[in-house]
Specification:
The complex is a heterodimer of chains A (229) and B (352).
Chain A: H1 6-39, H2 45-57, H3 60-71, H4 76-83, H5 92-116, H6 120-128, H7 133-162, H8 165-171, H9 181-190, H10 195-226
Helix pairs in contact in A: 1-5, 1-7, 2-5, 3-4, 3-8, 5-7, 5-8, 6-7, 7-10, 9-10
Chain B: E1 2-10, E2 13-21, E3 25-29, H1 36-44, E4 51-56, E5 59-63, E6 68-69, E7 77-80, H2 92-98, H3 110-117, H4 132-145, E8 150-154, H5 162-179, E9 183-187, H6 190-196, E10 199-204, E11 207-212, H7 214-217, E12 232-242, E13 247-252, E14 255-260, E15 269-275, E16 279-282, E17 293-304, E18 309-316, E19 319-326, H8 327-333, E20 340-345, E21 349-350
Helix pairs in contact in B: 2-4, 3-4
The chains are: A mainly alpha (229), B alpha+beta (352).
Chain lengths: 229, 352
């Protein structure tokens, strides 16, 4: 990678790693929660809906602070995880958690809308043909909501790669360890003559975002053709 | 044999139906809103009425008093919906094969069904490019390939034009005759009842108004019939002879009827329908009349129909006939039970 310096490469690769993992790891939960919110009636549904949306309406710094309180080494869950040897605060793994939490409401919203758009009559038809509920989901619902899942994933990835507030609060901005594209751009802009470096990272950000969009559309099309066979 | 007993209340509508569908084609007939679809959905397990008892050949599918409700996918009933409900993300072939994945292989194979329904050329087409009639054929094939114990069809032809309808109707008859699958067929169209039904269940406002053979059910006026043209007699006939002048002679019971030429070959079983309003009555054998079919008969029963008309039930050589005449004619001719009359038939409609 001649056209990227070692420092720049570490920033880009860390950002990519964080955003991709945040998206992929939260996707199963996102689909499950979206399905539950779209289809099931249960006690506490509004509370769950509110919790999922909280990161969208709270200032990101507040979310980052809450993550620090909960998942920090002294935190309720963080303390327990620390005993197992898992530390999230001020580590790149914490950046994945922060990005996933911040992107989650966007992902759930997109998938939920696509689930609500599925014609229940088609699922009924599948069940009359002998398909048990899980197979109805796998062969009818899932292929029909793939574009929604694709849209949700790309939104989540874009949000994750651009996440700033919660990330910098929870895992700080440590070069080579937790410094991602936005926090690096911020750092460049804080120093004299840093604009050139910032501009290079800005262009990289645009390229990544555009590529992700094209890739997700390509995948959605390919998967829609092959699933269900 | 399917035994059904359902009670359900929804807003101001009360469904309270009990009937038995023997082997053959049972037609659930009634105007829209009479509860037909609710019944079929309850049988399929897509709807759970307050009280339900559905038993198919001794297998209990629903029994609310004992807390039994088999899930839809375990009922093994084929369901053909009015709108087809094909899976647009799958090809025609994969739609057809969908049911095969979840059911044990049966005697109906893909090749047989494709041939039976004439859908060989459609197999690799995209569902979105199919016409309405083609979609319903695929839907019928898909349901059959799930090896159903019974076929439910909810107004499967209602969205099609007349020609498509005429093309598809025989398939239902055929799949019952040759495959032996009992069919429960929902419709509000009289012609479909007459062509298909071995048993008719007339629904009116959530209740079974009447049930039995089509010839018995259609001979009496009912609020369930959307129009009084639906009253008439339905008779089974055999094509006897084609005449040179373009007429076909049918053997009906102990009598004969002349109808415009039909394509059916001699010996074919057909069903004819004579609408009550197409039958005139005379006290003496009419002379100098253009009508070809004049039958002698005896009045068996008079039944009030409207403020101005009555339905006259006759016994005739071709079987029971019904005529709708005005109350004034009834007075003028002095008709009563036991009177011998001549029935002049204006039109004989061949139904199949």
């Amino acid at each position: 990678m001649d056209w990227l310096s070692a420092a720049e490469w570490s920033i880009v690769s860390l950002s990519m790693k964080v955003a991709v993992l945040a998206t992929l790891l939260s996707l199963p939960f996102g689909i499950f929660i979206a399905y539950a919110l779209a289809r099931w009636e249960f006690y506490g549904k509004q509370l769950l809906n509110g919790l999922v949306h909280l990161p969208l309406i709270l200032p990101p710094v507040v979310t980052g602070y809450l993550l620090l309180v909960t998942f920090g080494t002294q935190g309720v869950i963080g303390g327990w995880l620390a005993e197992l040897g898992i530390v999230l605060a001020f580590r790149w793994t914490g950046a994945v958690l922060a990005a996933a939490i911040m992107a989650f409401p966007l992902m759930v919203r997109a998938i939920r809308l696509s689930i609500e758009a599925v014609d229940l009559h088609l699922e009924q038809a599948a069940s009359t043909l002998g398909a048990p509920p899980w197979q109805v989901f796998r062969t009818i619902t899932l292929p029909l909501i793939l574009p929604g899942i694709g849209a949700g994933a790309i939104l989540a990835f874009a949000k994750a790669i651009g996440e700033f507030g919660a990330t910098i609060t929870f895992v700080s901005n440590i070069p080579g360890q937790t410094q991602t594209l936005p926090t690096a751009i911020y750092t460049f802009l804080q120093v004299p003559d840093g604009e050139g470096g910032a501009l290079r990272l800005v262009i990289i950000s645009i390229v990544i975002a555009m590529s992700a969009l094209l890739l997700s559309e390509y995948i959605a099309r390919r998967v829609a053709q092959s699933v269900g066979g | 044999m399917l035994e059904v007993s359902l009670q359900h209340r929804l807003g101001g509508f009360t469904l309270d139906a009990e009937f038995t569908a023997p082997a053959g084609i049972t037609v659930l007939f009634g105007r829209s809103g009479s509860g037909k679809t609710s019944i079929v959905n309850s049988i399929a397990g897509l709807q759970q009425p307050t009280q339900a008892r559905v038993i198919l050949n001794g297998d209990t599918l629903s029994d609310t008093t004992n807390g039994i409700h088999k899930p839809t996918h375990a009922r093994r009933l084929g369901y053909i919906f009015q709108e087809g409900r094909l899976f647009e993300h799958l090809s025609v072939r994969d739609n057809l094969r969908y049911g095969q994945r979840f059911n044990p292989a049966g005697r109906l194979g893909l090749a047989d069904i494709v041939e039976l329904l004439g859908i060989g050329d459609l197999q690799h087409r995209n569902i979105r490019t199919l016409s309405g009639g083609e979609k319903q054929r695929v839907a019928i094939g898909r349901a059959l390939l799930s090896q159903p114990r019974m076929l439910l069809a909810d107004e499967p032809l209602a969205a099609l034009d007349k020609e498509r309808k005429a093309e598809l109707l025989p398939y239902f008859k055929h799949l019952n005759d040759s495959l032996g699958i009992p069919v429960l067929y929902v419709t509000h169209a009289t012609d479909e009842v007459l062509q298909l039904a071995t048993t008719v269940i007339v629904m009116d406002d959530g209740k079974v108004a009447r049930q039995g053979e089509p010839s018995l059910v259609f001979a009496q006026p009912s609020a369930a019939f959307e129009d009084s043209r639906d009253i008439g007699s339905v008779l089974d006939a055999t094509v006897d002879q084609h005449h040179d002048d373009g007429l076909t002679e049918l053997q009906v019971g102990a009598g004969r009827l002349l109808v415009p030429e039909t394509a059916s070959t001699t010996g074919t079983q057909v069903r004819v329908r004579i609408a009550a309003q197409d039958v005139l009555l005379a006290r003496s054998r009419p002379q100098g009349l253009s009508a070809l079919n004049v039958l002698s008969g005896t009045i068996e029963k008079l039944e009030p129909h409207s403020s101005s008309s009555v339905i006259v039930h006759l016994a005739s050589p071709v079987g029971p006939l019904v005529a709708r005449i005005t109350r004034r004619s009834l007075q003028n001719l002095g008709l009563e039970q036991g009177t011998n009359v001549f029935a002049i038939i204006k039109t004989v409609a061949l139904e199949a």
